[in-house]
Design goal:
The chain contains 17 helices and 18 strands. The protein has 2 domains: about 220 residues, Rossmann fold (3-Layer(aba) Sandwich), CATH 3.40.50.10260; about 270 residues, UDP-N-acetylmuramoyl-L-alanine:D-glutamate ligase. Helices cover about 40% and strands about 15% of the residues. The strands form 2 sheets. The protein has an 11-stranded mixed beta sheet. Helix 12 packs parallel to helix 13. By secondary structure, it is α/β, with parallel strands linked by helices. The radius of gyration is 26 Å and the shape is elongated. Bound molecules: ligand NAX, adenosine-5'-diphosphate (ADP) and potassium ion. Potassium ion binds next to strand 5 and strand 6. This is Bifunctional NAD(P)H-hydrate repair enzyme.
């Protein structure tokens, strides 16, 4: 799914009006109908919960007025409050006229704001994508009042005060919505940790914006959902053999962190690799042979950490990092690997920390390497903290462009940057995955997929991230989020990959 900017959303509206020959009021009605349908599925019967709708002067306010009319038609008694404005939008004015006289409408007086009982439902239709500056004056006072009320807040399109795709200054007031119900495509603002307290749970409802316009509009950011991924993994041909899926090498583990290499190895095996060889320090030999007997174990001459790079000839892809440690000798192994490797590389954890500590190694990164830092590792990699989440995304884009690599920023909505700077936001996963070792599982899975020659580097990365999160979602259904441990993810990799595999066309 494409993520449009606020400006592109306006263009999509205009293109839809033109393509369908409808008025902007008709499109607004469509949005309001979709919103009401969503809301009516969740509301108690009329009369049980007071509904307050707060409308701004633009089309977001117009949506709010149309919602008020439709709720009234459905038997509810909403009360509507409008922000005083010199020049309301045409569709606001039209919907103001259409509001039945039985629906009370009052102008907001910042000195006498309506008391809001905590059991009320507040619909925030003050500002949407047309927000042009931080809220001040009556709008700011009203937003603070809404936030302090304790009432449940549902925002139309965007929580008022939040920009769709740019940071706002930390002290500018923004509605803290419990739900944000938006239209057609997700907004960048929904995907960033710094906005979570404003956006709450979010939902995107289809309003059938012009698909040709969306198709032809180029964007910097994509949201990766099931529709994007399903069928990307080709089915296995009947005559495939273990060579078809590649022999990979995993360099991982150090004393006390052999578990990381085991988790990555198991995930790699479940990710469908043909053959796996693991290079671990000698201390891990028995552990690995026992816990992942399907993997071949190549013990390092050193007991506690990896000190020698094995011959790279046999391997179709190489992963390095989980539990590796940051010893000097291990850093030299990484340096040699970067120099010699001519197959896809996956770098994680301590391999990234070593890159961060030795920035001279960065120019050695082979093209199309796949790096999987979490935000702290990413900060070490780029050497400076981000001002905010938007800035971090720009750092990610720049990094991927500069080193012609695929770089994954892990977290909720894990973000993949491609070498051309395009960002892909993953939609699966849950907070239960914030547990030691889930990243090691991701590395193993990505390594298996990078070795599969049938997949492009982009498809391998997108598929791996999506499947990893989905395995986490499936695991959490059984264990609960708190009870989830990284090993649980491994069990679901197989079933999830099966679900995402392309099915042959029916006769
Ligand atoms: N494709 C879509 O997503 C659709 C969007 N519609 C709605 O239209 C909205 C966008 O409407 P508009 O472009 O009219 O924009 P808004 O309604 O978000 O706000 C624009 C109005 O607010 C004023 N304003 C902006 N920032 C302000 C500030 N800080 N303080 C005070 N006033 C401020 C502007 O001068 C203008 O009057 C969307 O958010 C959505 O709710 C729907 O009606 C139709 C379809
Ligand atoms: N709140 C969350 N929602 C979705 N996924 C998450 C969340 N927290 C963590 N994850 C996922 O779990 C993994 C954690 O990786 P990482 O931080 O490297 O852990 P570790 O180093 O312990 O293996 C990442 O893939 C990340 O995207
Ligand atoms: K709003």
């Amino acid at each position: 799914m494409k993520i449009l900017t606020a400006a592109q959303t306006r263009q999509a509206d205009a293109a839809t009006l033109q393509a369908e020959g409808i008025t902007s009021a008709e499109l607004m009605e469509r949005a309001a109908t979709a919103f009401c349908e969503w809301l009516l599925n969740r509301l108690p019967l009329p009369g049980q919960r007071p509904i307050y709708i707060f409308c701004g002067p633009g089309n977001n306010g117009g949506d709010g007025l149309a919602v008020a009319r439709q709720l009234h038609e459905a038997g509810y008694q909403p009360q509507v409050w409008g922000l005083p404005a010199a020049r309301p939008s045409a569709d606001f004015t039209l919907n103001r006229r259409r509001l039945p006289t039985e629906v009370p409408y009052q102008e907001v007086d910042a000195k006498k704001l309506p008391p809001l009982p905590a059991h009320a439902l507040v619909i925030d239709a003050l500002f949407g994508t047309g927000l042009s500056r931080p809220l001040t004056g009556a709008a700011a006072t009203l937003v603070q009042h809404l936030n302090q009320s304790g009432a449940a807040i549902v925002a139309v399109d965007l929580p008022s005060g939040l920009f769709a795709d740019a940071p706002q200054s930390p002290d500018s007031p923004v509605v803290r919505a419990h739900h944000t119900v938006s239209f057609e495509l997700p907004k960048l603002a929904f995907l960033l940790p710094q906005n979570a307290e404003f956006v709450g749970e979010w939902e995107v409802l289809p309003i059938h914006l012009d698909s040709a316009f969306i198709h032809n509009t180029s964007v910097d950011n994509y949201f990766v959902d099931d529709n994007v991924i399903r069928g990307r993994l080709p089915a296995r041909s009947k005559f495939s053999h273990k060579g078809t899926f590649g022999h990979v090498l995993l360099l991982a583990g150090s004393r006390g962190k052999i578990g990381a290499s085991v988790l990555a190895a198991r995930a790699c095996l479940r990710g469908g690799v043909g053959l796996l060889t693991v290079r671990i320090p000698a201390v891990g030999y028995h552990i690995m042979q026992t816990s992942a007997p399907e993997a071949m174990t190549l013990a390092d001459p050193a007991t506690d950490f990896v000190t020698e790079l094995p011959d790279l000839k046999p391997y179709a892809a190489i992963g390095i990092g989980p539990g590796l440690g940051q010893e000097h000798a291990t850093c030299e192994v990484l340096r040699q690997l970067l120099r010699k490797a001519n197959v896809p590389l996956v770098l994680d954890a301590d391999a990234l920390n070593l890159l961060g500590a030795n920035p001279g190694l960065l120019p050695l990164l082979p093209r199309e390497s796949l790096l999987t830092p979490h935000p702290k590792e990413f900060e070490r990699l780029v050497g400076k903290p981000a001002r905010d989440d938007y800035h971090r995304l720009e750092q990610l884009r720049t990094f991927a462009r500069e080193y012609k690599c695929y770089c994954v920023l892990k977290g909720a909505y894990t973000t993949l940057a491609a070498p051309d700077g395009t960002l892909y936001f993953n939609s699966t996963g849950n907070p239960g995955m914030a547990t030691g070792g889930s990243g090691d599982v991701l590395t193993g899975l990505l390594l298996a997929l990078r070795a599969d020659k049938r997949l492009s580097p982009l498809d391998a990365a997108l598929l791996g991230l999506y499947a990893h999160g989905r395995a986490g979602d499936r695991a959490a259904q059984q264990t609960g989020e708190a009870g989830l441990v990284a090993g649980d993810l491994v069990r679901f990799i197989g079933p999830v990959l099966q679900e995402l595999t392309a099915t042959p066309p029916r006769l």
